[in-house]
Each structure stands twice: as C-alpha cells, then as structure tokens.
Amino acid sequence: MTKNEFVKVLSKKANLPQEQTKALLNATLESIVEVVKSGEKLLFSDFGTFYISNRAQRKGRNPQTGKPITIPAYRLPAFRVGSTFKKAVNELPKKEEKQTKQTNAKNKKK
C-alpha cells in the first residue's frame, strides 16, 4: 500500500478530507523523525516503540579486493513492535485458519 492509498483509508476512517488527512500524516511522520533523531524513544502503548539503535565500529572486508576495512559506527532508526499489534497481526480469521491447517496437512503428506 502506498502512502496515498493509506491517506485515503485513513481519511475515510477519521471522516476527514484527504488534504487535511495527508497534512496530519506528514506532520506525524516528521514529528516521529524529529523525536527519534533527538535520541528520545517514542512509545505508543500497545503499538510499538521507535528508537535509535547504535551500531559499533567493526572490521569488515572489501568484497571486491578482499582487503580488511573498518566500518565506522553509526546510528540506525528502529521499531520494536508492541504486544497488541503483534497479537493482531498473528490472529487469523477462522476460515484462513482452516485453510492453513489443511495446507499444512497436505504438505506433511508429500
């Protein structure tokens, strides 16, 4: 799903015009970047946490020459999924659950 498609979904759900929804989404995303960039964790209860993961300097190899190189330390934005979000994604509707069990049973026979 693209950002514009998501704006349409969000616009309908929030009962807001698409332009207003797009502006709100852009402001939200920019704010998330600013907060995480400043080094703060951003916690949305039961949804997840945005944070910075610090990667240490390490040794590596240049794949073209094979010579050893030093890979500098860097910061990486990260997201840890919350429990409610994780459960929601892993819940299968009853019909899909039956199909999955049948597919697994067929695969075991092969």
Highlighted features:
110 residues, alpha+beta, three-stranded antiparallel beta sheet, HU Protein, Chain A, single chain, 4 helices, 5 strands, 2 domains, extended, 51% helix, two-stranded antiparallel ribbon
Distance between the termini: 35 Å
Question: Which sequence of SSEs, written as H and E, runs from N to C?
Answer: HHEEEEEHH
* Number of DSSP strand runs: 5
Total individual domains: 2
Helical percentage = 40-55%
SS element count, helices? 4
Please state the average pLDDT score.
90
Unreliable residue stretches: none
Protein name: DNA-binding protein HU-beta
Family: Belongs to the bacterial histone-like protein family.
Keywords: DNA condensation, DNA-binding
GO molecular function, one term: structural constituent of chromatin
